[in-house]
Amino acid sequence: MFLQTLVTGLGIGSIYALMAMGYCLVFSILNFSNFAHGAMIMIGAYVGYLFCSIIGIPFFLSIIITAVITGILSVINERLAYRSLRERNAPSLYLIITAMGISIMLENLVYSTIGSNFYAYPRVFSKNYLEIFSSTIGLIDIYSFFVSIICIILLHLFLNNSKIGMAIRAGVADPIATSLMGANFNVLIRNVFFLSGIFAGISGVFMGLRYMVYPQMGWITNKAYIAAVIGGLGSLPGAIIGGFILGIIETIVSVYISSVVRDVFSFSMLILILLLKPLGLFGIKYEEKM
Amino acid sequence: MLPLLELQQVEKTFGGICALSDISFTVNKNEIIGLIGPNGAGKTTIFNLVTGAYNISSGLILLNGKPINKKRPDQIVNLGVARTFQNIRLFKKLTVLNNVKASLYHKAKYNIFDALLKTGNYKKLEKDIDEEARILLKQMELDEYVEIQADNLAYGLQRKLEITRALGLSPELLLLDEPAAGMNPKEVINIIDLIKKVHSEYRLTIIIIEHHMKVITSLCSNVIVLNFGKKIAEGPAEEIHKNSKVIEAYLGNSTQKKKTEIAYANN
Amino acid sequence: MEYISTIFIVASINVVAVIGMTIFTGFTGLFSFGHAAFIAIGAYGAAILTYFYHFPFILALIFGSLLAGLISLLVGYPTIKGNLGSDYLAVALLGFGEAVRVILENLKITQGARGLPGIRICCTVPVVIIAIIISVLIARNLIYSKYGRRMVEVREDAVAAEMLGVPLFKTKYFSFFISAIFCGLSGGLFAHYYGFIQPAMFTLEQSTQILTSVVCGGIGSITGPIVATYIFVFIPEVFRFAKLWRLVFYGAALVLTMIFRPSGLMGYKEIGFHSLVAKIKRVE
User: Fold this and answer.
1) Structural domain contains residue A268
2) ipTM
3) Is the pLDDT of residue B267 over 50?
């Protein structure tokens, strides 16, 4: 029983971690909460459903196509909505409001055009469960766990070894200096949004597979933000660990206490962590240059 | 006499990088102290530590003999420290008058109920503040711009307004961060006169960060020189530019200097 | 006539919450997407008193507002204390909205998801007019006092404000508290107008509507958002077909305002008697 709960928790946590990473990438470089990320995840779930179920492309190929599409959408989002604000140095409040506006618009656009129906992904795996040590373990948990781990490793390698990745890391450390060193800041931001969109797409497909697809699934994506705050805004390892912690604790609470109080519990945990560590587990205080 | 401000072995690190180390100096009442050094030497960091914007990593900062390094910026302000910023930080969307009033509100001792019910006490204190702000603006010869939005002022006037706003806090210690930056020679002379006037009229103690040596030599009794986060020299303004370490900090060491001279000669 | 008064009351109930949000977002420059939760708390707080304990309406309203204010203090403390950007608070409030809904659905006294039917209906046109007048007066007196001016200074430049002796935490915390009080009052009126409340009524949609009114009405203005609220309630009533697309429109309005006219309808200005007279004279 406990092993089963733990694996489910890791499975859900890994999706949260994926979602949180995309959100955190943008936060770490632009220092604002991109609340449109949730809508991107929702779109990812729909696009994944389109390819996987209606067109009938193999599951893992659908994930890749979806990731590219949400990546491009995320770049378009930045280009149309955020760039002009960034270029005139608008306060971050304006960016947050814009992001929330995008999120509301996209969510309700889906609602008014596609409708509020729930769509379920087709059976992707030949078996749904595995029997290990007399516990039943969901295959989807194992798959999402391993896909997340692979994504995290790939991101780590990308940020540390590729030219684009190093430019992103430099941009996070000091945006002004990086642009002075010749890195084109707009290109850098575009790459960050593309990466963030890729993560939104992948996590969206897994979300859809687990919970079905519907317009208000953006609500569940709030977990991405909560996980990132628990880990400490702006810290990638924080986002990953925050995601796993949130997933595991939520699962334990719903199995051993009640699934009803799950969201209350995760909220209380958020408040508790901020009380003890105001910056989250791994947050870094940004000291403004004067 | 007790010094107004005293720094004892102050150290500041940013994530392992040492921005300031072993900084000690004292500032006596009514003095004007100059803080000079190449860019990135840690001058503004000292201001940020004294005003509480950053926390010090180790050491002690005393104001009137009492430690202030554990206090919040707004508490330190109330102990009598005011500052200006290297890149002017006025409230751009507010009028000149409201910018100055912002620094006077700490004197308004009315509570929320006075404000909501507009009691006599509230009205009197608000009126006092309005008058005081206008008087201050008049003294600083800014009274013709009272209702203008701050970001519409000319650059030089913005600097002046920022100093006026700092004076509104009735500080004992005023920290000026490059008050003459970006000014032409005539404006530099004006700002020197202004600082002199402010210094004598408000009986202030002032620390100035500045690159214009003219400002430093005509105002400061004592100069502290920083380089790479360390204090390399301290002394009267007339003597400090003869100090070999200071010359080295600004111009490179003598062998380098010779090389540049040779290079010049060859050209 | 009755139709118009219905729309008027619905809009006016929103206006009370919008005044609260304009203090928080418009004047202090902080962001929240969970204020519907405070409306819910105010609604339940007030309704429970009149429904189960037969309290007078006015006392119940005050209790509901204070309850919302009290809870805002509990939620605000850990998230504002860190003195960071408003992102921590914004995210915490997203979680808070959901948590409040779940709690309301599972408490005995709120009768769970079924809600409270048959609440005494006390909220009439005169009541909302009085509520709006009081709210506007409180907001105006607050904004022109040192408390309000400090909020504006924090919005304009938090670092400079702190260096002028503005206590950042207290100012933000107080602004949050006041905004929750107004939302609580709005909730109390809401419950006693519809006569029926259930947790599902207090959703993201409500938070969206309030925020859109504040932003499109104009940051740093009280009258702008009030006008915007009436417009936003009347338009979908006139164009019925627009109902389905209403939220799409709200989202787009937020984005377009920020990009093309960030000061909104009336940014940093008020519609006052004097300015109206001046405008009319200029036209003549």
Assistant:
1) no
2) 0.88
3) no
Name the residue among C269, C164, C282 with its Cα closest to residue C219: C269
The tens digit of pLDDT for each residue in A93-133 reads 899 999 999 999 999 899 888 888 888 888 777 677 777 77
Q: Is residue A165 part of a domain?
A: yes
Torsion of CA B215, B217, B218, B220, to 10 degrees: 90
Q: Which residue of A has its CA nearest to B84?
A: A290
Question: CB contact, 8 Å: B54 with chain A?
Answer: yes
Q: Which domain holds residue A213?
A: 2-220
**All structural domains of chain B with their residue ranges:** 1-80+171-239, 91-169
pLDDT tens track for A5-24? 899 999 999 999 999 999 99
Backbone Cα Rg of chain B: 21
CB contact under 8 A, B85 and A290: yes
Of C141, C147, C159, the CB nearest to B89: C159
Locate the domains of chain C by residue range.
Answer: 2-202
**Are the beta carbons of C164 and B72 separated by less than 8 Å?**
no
Cβ within 8 Å, pair C168-B108: no
Residue B190 bridge partners (DSSP): none
**∠B110-B84-B186 over CA atoms, to 5°?**
130
Cβ-proximal residues to C62 (8 Å cutoff; 6+ apart), any chain: none
Domain count, chain A: 1
pLDDT of amino acid C81: 83
Determine, for residues B72 and C162 on separate chains, whether the beta-carbon distance falls below 8 Å. Answer: yes
Spell out which residues of chain B touch residue A290, defining contact as CB-CB under 8 Å.
44, 47-48, 53, 85-86, 89, 177
Residue B260 has pLDDT above 70, yes or no: no
- Name the residue with tokens 């194992």: A142
pLDDT of residue A69: 97
Q: Which chain A residues are closer than 8 Å to C248 by Cβ? A: 104-105, 108-109, 112
CATH class of B1-80+171-239: alpha beta
pTM: 0.90
